[in-house]
Model the fold of this input.
Amino acid sequence: MFKKKICCVASVNLTNYSPAALRRISKIANCALVFLPENPSVEYMEAFNEISLINVANVIHAPSDKTICSVNGSAILKDVSSKNFYIVNGEAVVLSTVSDEPVPFIVNGQIFYKDDMNIECISANGEATPVNFDYEKVKIYQERIEINADFIKHSEQGTYIICMSKIKLSEDVTDEILSEKGIHFICSSKIYCKQNVYGYVAANSQGMDKIITDAEEYKKFIIK
Done:
């Protein structure tokens, strides 16, 4: 009997497979996540254990009543529900939920969510960061952005700037104007700024890889 191989995919959902269907799979390789039923039968597990698993990060038993939702790249998630099982392969900002029950997430990357949300992080190969922000004062950008003093001047007090890429603060941005407005940054990559605002940015930022103040790197980084 010909057996198939499943290789180099983010996740494999086997929750609806029968033992006979499992026996047609010889190998699962280079996969971050494999989903199995929450209460599999003995025959099911015997068939699954015959599959060769190579470089599989996690095997999760998922409730049969939940829909598996994959999020790849960067995304803004609204109205997430406990009826679903979310897999984030990249970065995501969760803006709202529609249920009081825990919303399950598997994070292979990074997510940010409001700290009063009932988010259940089942597994994290990265970070799941609760943040205390006001939705009405959030500015979200998926591409790299440059922020100047005029932008900050016209922002609301306590604004959160969320960027799924890189942020550059213009040379006219000062520690005083940032402090006056109480700006906060959430960035999934690097923040480029001048040395005079490094302290403020470091104290009021989350998620970034690194804060860049080197003059040459700062000059070379151009928003296109």
